[in-house]
Amino acid sequence: MADDVTVITPPLSPHEIKSGNARSDTGDNIHFNWFTCAGEASQWDMRVHPDSFIMKGEMNIIADYTNIWKRLKNPVVLFGRNFDQDSALLFQSKLLFRIATKDFMILDSALRLSSHLPSNVPASLKPGTDNYMQLRKQICELMAYTRSYIARVLADENSIWLLGNLITSLSENLFALRLLLRSMRDLPDYIIMHSGSSHGNKCSQASYHLFHAHLDLRWYHLTILHQLVKCQNLYITLDDYQQNSKDHKLIDKNILEEQVLLLLSDLIVIAVTKFERMSLNESLKKTPFSCTCVRELWLMLQLFLDRLHEVEHGKSFWSYLNQLLDVVLGKKSLSNTSVYNCSALSLPEEYTCTDRVSFCLWLLVHLAQLNGYTEEGQYVGTGSGRVESNYPQLEAALKSCVSADSTVTEVQLRVIVRLVTALVTEWWEARSEPVMILWEYYHRRLNSAFFIPGAALDTIAIMSKTGAGLLQQVKSRLEVSEAAQDEDSFSLFLCLLGKHLMCCVSHGQQRHWHHMKGRIYSKFSPNKLLALTELGLYHFVSLFLTLALTVDLQEVSKKLQDLLSLLPIGSIDLNRQHVILKLNFALMQLYVERGLDIADIALPLQSIGMELCTHKSGNSVMLMRTFVEGIQDIIDVSPTLQLSEHSLIGGWITHYLSNSSLVDSCRLLDTVNSIVSKLRQTLNYIMDEDSTDGRQPRKMVEVLLQHVLPYVQSQYSNTVTQPPFQVADLAASFTLLALEQPNFQTQSFDQLFGYFVTSEKVNIRLMKRYLSLVLLEDTVMRIVIDPSKNYESIVIQAWVRCSLLSVNETSEELSDLARAMVRLPVIKDLCQPSAVCLGDADDPLFTFIKLVGLKYKSLQDIHRKSQFHEKCLIYFMQVDKCVSSVVGCATSSSELVSRIYVCAACMVCHCGQILYTKSKPNCLLPSLVNHLLLPHAIYRPETQLHPFIASAIKKTLHQFIFGIAKLNPKQDVFIARILRDIVIQYLPRIVAKSGNSVNIEGAFTTHPLLKCFTECEKPEIWILVLESLSEKFFTCRGTVPHEQAVLALGFLMDVITSKKFCVDLVKEIIDCSLLKIFELAMFASDGHIARRQAVGFIRATVNIDVFKQNIVLRESFLSVFMMLCHKHLAFSSAYVFRLSTCLAELCPELMVKCLPQLKDLVKTVELKRGVGYDPGLRNGLGKLSSLLGIQET
Length: 1193
Fold this sequence. Notes:
The protein has 1193 residues and is mainly alpha-helical. It has 53 helices and four strands. Among the domains are: 48-113 and 129-242, no CATH class; 430-452 and 460-595, no CATH class; 878-986; 991-1076 and 1089-1099, no CATH class; 1110-1192, no CATH class. A two-stranded antiparallel ribbon has the order 1-2. Strands 3-4 form a two-stranded antiparallel ribbon. A hairpin with a 2-residue loop joins strand 1 (76-78) and strand 2. The longest helix has 33 residues, at 206-238. The radius of gyration is 57 Å and the shape is elongated.
């Protein structure tokens, strides 16, 4: 600030100068420094105010005060009056110091007055702000002038004679002024705590200027006193008589030391006052300096005393401070006898501090940080060249803290350890004793929770569930610059220990570790280890992991293994076993990260894993989960699997996978799959099987093939349960590994690929995933399409199986498979003519089947057609086995049963000529029909269809018939029989029921056989169905019709109705079924429902408009009737005339038309019998004629 250092205009002319009487109108000409505040001192902002002491070169000034004197102008202006610069202190010192005392008292009174003034006092009556600053400024000018004058006397040999009077007068005046200042303890607390201001010396508060005047005067007093000591020493040198004089005793080195202690004590009082007004945790964020000026005074005092120590061989700053800190700690008290024999200036016997150790360490940390300043006031940290340690005081404080009779709390320890960490690892040179003092405390309390009573539960230290997490916990403590707020004191101690050892190692000071390890290891006897609880063991583990991370890993690990050998796994409880298991995996992970072989740790663990798996219990399950997670962590951090990671794999895997839950199995399979994936990556760089780099991966391959592959193969064929999908992932990984590294496996790619693709018993869900993974690899696809391998047809066969047994799935695996199929030349050839993309189809399998059928039909060349036929048989080779497996267990899934029937019907419909070869009885079609439509049980009337199968047949039966009917049933007895049996067996079985009875009317509207008429316009199909049901159902034994005759007649009625009495259909029914219907009506006994149904059908037929209007239908009707007469008139004439009579009632015009033919037929029968006249025939004919209204002639 411009006001802080005043440069005055030239002095008045000589005739205007009247020493001590005239007031200067030209301003002041004394250069002075004073404290300029920047507000509260922050530990994150270490800057010094640019207008304050040190930034104005104070440390250079006290080194050579003569430069200031040279800049003084005569006269000097003090307190607004002119004084001769050479004689003012010689003759007017008492006056000047009295004026200074008066000004200081005015300032003190102004503070007291302002603190008691009512708030409504007018501003004009309040003391002026400028007056406060002016009073303080005038005092500082006198002190600066005094320092300059003394320096001038010391520098001028001709002025030495002045020393006697000067020393006497100044020492008395300085004592009086210092007595006025008294101790900081005498100031009200609010002045100490609230006198800082970011406005600096422009602050309007009297308390600000009073407090800073205290600081100014104490500093000036100390530096002037130091000058006077130098004056006294020089004076004594010149005059030996003065050595024993009374004046000499007033100014000597002891006085200076006492004043240093007084000043330090006052600064400590300020720090204690601040410390007592905040919580202990707040001290970590606060400084012991009430404002930046206090910090600056500490800094200048530190610089000043260190210079005296170096140049004049005085005590160091830490030596002075330690005397007072001993008092704070209560170790001893200083002598209360002052050189001045004045109690007001005596040192305190004790300091009122509730937490002495924490305060001392807090103060030490912030004073150590002041070593980061240069003499110019720039903060550069540890690179300042001024850093000096104070370990004796630190160790003394720690010993008093952790002594046996100490009652230190967890809250205090958390703060103390943080403070010690800052000193030991950030500011001072490496030294192990403070760390060991704390270790002596903690090793006796390893079982403690280090929890603060009343704190939230989330502040409790949480043990990681895995070895990797445990290691990461330890690492994070060492990596962060500042520990988390809720860390317990033991964790903070480990942080201190680790950072200290890291510092020692980085500076090549391993001797510290050699001294420490004996004191650490010796604390763990067998009894001590057995006495550790789970929490204690966790602390033990954290300790050794910290050591392993920071010093010699192998040495620490070996010692740790030796200690753990004292804890047999069977002698400790589950929780402690868990901790030890996590420790081992954390160690292995650390080994892998450092590139060290893990065999020595892994092999014993493998044995433990085997024992846990063979003696399965609730405890072993939890341990094995940790075991598996630990292996995964090791694999994750291992870049090449060349550190004996294979030692973790053994026979325990098979036991574990066979007996664990699905979730646990999946977790382990994921781990194994990650191992195989990393193996593939590693081996891609290793082409020479005999290379050193390949030995470890080869061993890993061997153990995986021995212990994992058999399980994968067994689960791959598991159709009873649903194995995890990771089985397919591993199958694919093993297959690809065999392809990429054929010399590393005992089973070749062909063997594995063939097993996983062509095995009859496979889990389709796994096969889909396997194929989708394997076929995505270009190398595999090139092998598949290689004609010499014959894999193409096998892959298509596997895809057909997968698609056939996949229910309502739009999974990624099926989509990937479909896209892979498109890449096959055979599929490309199928899709090209029709421009159909298999991958875009709603159901690629249906599209494929249709394309195969079209392709087969399009081939004209017999040889090519035969070759294609053989390929297609391979494609569909496994279909019948899939069908039998599903139908044989129809209760598993209605969707799957429906899928099987739909796909099979599609195949029969579009590829029937491929599926059936007349000359090969073992072809695919008979097998499909026998499994799906005509199993042996279906021929037993009592057999009931499973609801799932019945539902599927309703959807697909007509498609089966359509496809089979294309196989020329007229020339193939087997095909004709199949069709006939299908119609016969399923007409009565799939009928809509109402309760326990069948309502004939409309019962067949949803019957699948009805679709043979409604969805097909081919008469051949109609004829097949009509002939089949007529021959079977429209028959009688004597007068008893077939038991299903009524159903068959109802079916025909629904057929005609649904086709809306189509002429062609009526014509086919007349030609194919009417004769049998006539016979049913003719022979069935009166009153039988079948006869009534038959008569009703005839009535409905002859009454429809189509029949009445179509002469062809009527002629066919008459033709059938005459056929019936020719067949039965000779032997069953009564039944014939019975039917004729019925028809005469139903269609008399038609019967009239056929009556002549009937008469001729009667004559023919009579002739064949050898009689000219048969009464029975004639009687029947007569009745018919009479009924028709025709007179018999």
